[in-house]
């Protein structure tokens, strides 16, 4: 019967696939047109600003803008000896201009990143410009500071004539360029950035593990409870997601204070004899972050646990498996997709924390985001902020890609 | 507890231990949310228990101080406008993405969701720089635009989830009865997915209303939002008026949460 049917069916004409695709094209375009406003909106208000900000990690406008004549004068310089008189004349002219335009300070600040003491050297020249006498300028510069005779100093200026700089990116991983342009580890005393990076990963890891240890049994119990009770327990997990992160952090500030609720309770119960320092500690930061992230870990695990048929454990038991063995070999492996989804989400979100470390943590608990904000707000060092942001973004996006691959964006649910 | 009849004694003990542990975790999860309420009505300016005397003075402080009331108004206005934008764009996008044959669905979804996972400081500094160049820092417009971007994924996800249970045959039925695409949408699709859209809008509102970091970078004294006002307060010197503000924020969150769950219940019934 089937054979007759298939024999009598006409062979599909050549190019049917292409014709179908052509016919479908208006529908596909219409579907895409619906998403277009949101896409354009996100590109303009979200993606483009972030992209633009990140480019400041390699932009190097200061020396080019302020010292054009000096750069030209250094064009044929060999790089090994003190440059000729024309370089000093050009620098004096550029700085005289900079003094009028009030751009000398920005230049000094920029060069100071690469070579300590450059700011004061530049500003000292700017102050003494009026006192320079006729005749050779090189000795007069050297009289202000003998380092002006050093080729290394001029090498820094020449190197930064380039519109792009690797300086901020290298610094963000504790590397630097020496006078000849070679890349090397920076001195121990200045190597802080890998520590910050490691600390951020470590705190995020601790929080992820803590939420899993607390969240897995909780999800298990919620999934086992009779549906009326389970519904109520689920509300208890969802409610914290709705309350503001700032309010939850505030609650922890109050709880962890030296005269706070936890210390009072511990003293009253006789568990401690003196007040513990909980605020401004790593313990406090991780505790508060674990509290905030817990629902993100619990919910995906719970949704997977609910889909595991109840009969499986019974079958395992009836086949002779002891209770824990049945749980470990039959039940637990099936929860892994939920565990992966929950832990990856918590790890991604923990990497970017700002508010909680800022309010609950001490100086040693500040994470990447806190340093990015500090570089903008206190130091006005956009390049360094952008380099750190780039590093944080690379870490976040690589784990996000793993999340998309393993879990998929369609599987994200909000309660 | 919740065990089959054949469970052994050891199993029962073990289950009891796990259930106790889970309830302790749930208490840890919920407890801190409610700690701000008693402290906000304590007469003493110290955060100590047991509370000796009760008073509404910190709420009076809050509502008599124009800094706090203005920040509350600013937060509400910013949240309303950004919710409107995010709900419009997010719903349209979800309608498109849910159609069969939507091109590059995975890549588009990855981009749409990314504001949810992006470290907020990076979003904030980017907006600060970009909007600064456009003259939009220290304006309400800048804040509304940035908050709408952060809220869009929440709308997309909830509306998509509502659309996943929507029977597309209904659209065809509507069309076969002579309605145009727009007519079908308003007469058939919209009423059915409305609970999803409202849930998304509530989430979008909560995202904007509670957001601190972007607001910290984009607002000046005049557009300062309630969370920003709280954040600076906690940094300087934490005072009981902040507890009153935190209690109000939590009350709004709980109210939104209750409304959302009522909508879900109605939808299920």
UniProtKB/TrEMBL annotation, chain A:
CDD domains: TM_PBP2 (cd06261). Keywords: Cell membrane, Membrane, Transmembrane, Transmembrane helix, Transport. One of its GO terms (cellular component) is plasma membrane. PROSITE patterns: ABC_TM1. PANTHER family: ABC TRANSPORTER PERMEASE PROTEIN, INNER MEMBRANE ABC TRANSPORTER PERMEASE PROTEIN YDCU-RELATED-RELATED. Gene3D superfamilies: MetI-like. It is found in: Cell membrane. It comes from Shinella granuli. This is Putative spermidine/putrescine transport system permease protein. Coiled coil: none annotated. GO terms for biological process: transmembrane transport. Its main location: membrane. InterPro entries: MetI-like, MetI-like_sf. It is a multi-pass membrane protein. The keyword Chaperone does not apply. Residues 197-403 form the ABC transmembrane type-1 domain. The chain crosses the membrane at residues 31-54, 201-222, 229-245, 283-303, 339-360, 380-403. Belongs to the binding-protein-dependent transport system permease family. CysTW subfamily.
From TrEMBL, chain B:
It is found in: Cell inner membrane; Cell membrane. Gene3D superfamilies: MetI-like. The chain crosses the membrane at residues 12-37, 72-95, 107-131, 143-163, 242-263. It is a multi-pass membrane protein. The keyword ATP-binding does not apply. PROSITE patterns: ABC_TM1. InterPro entries: MetI-like, MetI-like_sf. GO terms for cellular component: plasma membrane. SUPFAM superfamilies: MetI-like (SSF161098). Belongs to the binding-protein-dependent transport system permease family. This is Putative spermidine/putrescine transport system permease protein. It comes from Shinella granuli.
